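Researcher: Sequence recovery benchmark, item below. Answer with residues only.
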């Protein structure tokens, strides 16, 4: 999918933070796509990444396209960095309305192979960061009537895909969003989870062989590959006032992969198309 058309007003007046918003060069991963789509709909955006230079590339692209963004470099698994990120965003833009917790790492792990340090690192980056960013963002959101938090999880958190720590941490991200939705709904906070799957992102293009990519395409009911823009558009909807009555949900963006049973999936793989 090419970069979506800009309508320019769905998020007018809102301020967003997107973690993991950096990318290398002209590549568009999930975080960069989310930042670009939110900005294209009128949000002012803080593009956060542990690699400041990559975050600056995203912010520069937004500003060149007529938006308003700045870059922040920091490790959002550290509470002090999270507090500073939120503080700098509010100091620059005056408020905070939208938080997208997008940082994450995927490392194949099994019970036999994983050690304490690897387990802790995956949970710190994937889950602790979302908790910390939410902790520091919610007080600022409540000052202006509420806001929307999106955790970017994975279909690996819905069904087991053979990655112990990654899948478990992603499942926990969905529960974190549900807890926030219940605990802070009366503060005007909505919290939801977006679970991507079977996307062709720059990372997937690098690691997936052609035959695996074709199998992934065929196993989905739509017979298509998704991309980062599909996730970004789902996030944009949940961030907007159009989703004012939606909270505590987990939305798969996967072409129907999580809906299909094993026998039906086998039949699709065997089809000539």
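Model:
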């Amino acid at each position: 999918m090419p970069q979506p058309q800009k309508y320019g007003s769905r998020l007018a007046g809102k301020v967003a933070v997107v973690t993991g918003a950096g990318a290398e060069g002209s590549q568009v991963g999930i975080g960069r796509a989310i930042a670009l789509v939110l900005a294209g709909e009128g949000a002012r955006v803080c593009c956060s990444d542990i690699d400041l230079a990559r975050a600056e590339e995203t912010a520069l692209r937004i500003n060149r396209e007529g938006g308003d963004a700045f870059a922040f470099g920091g490790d959002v698994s550290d509470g002090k960095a999270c507090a500073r990120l939120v503080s700098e965003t509010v100091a620059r833009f005056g408020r905070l309305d939208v938080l997208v917790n997008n940082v994450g790492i995927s490392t194949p792990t099994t019970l036999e192979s994983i050690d304490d340090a690897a387990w802790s690192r995956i949970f710190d980056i994937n889950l602790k960061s979302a908790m910390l960013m939410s902790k520091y963002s919610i007080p600022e959101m409540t000052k202006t009537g509420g806001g929307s938090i999106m955790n970017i999880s994975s279909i690996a958190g819905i069904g087991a895909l053979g990655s112990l720590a990654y899948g478990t941490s992603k499942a926990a991200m969905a529960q974190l969003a549900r807890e926030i939705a219940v605990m802070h709904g009366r503060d005007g906070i909505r919290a939801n989870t977006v679970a991507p799957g079977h996307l062709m992102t720059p990372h997937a293009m690098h690691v997936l062989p052609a035959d695996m990519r074709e199998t992934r395409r065929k196993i989905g009911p739509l017979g298509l590959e998704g991309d980062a823009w599909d996730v970004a558009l789902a996030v944009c909807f949940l961030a907007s006032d159009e989703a004012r009555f939606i909270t505590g949900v987990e939305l798969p963006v996967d072409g129907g992969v999580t809906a299909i049973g094993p026998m039906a999936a086998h039949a699709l793989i065997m089809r000539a198309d």
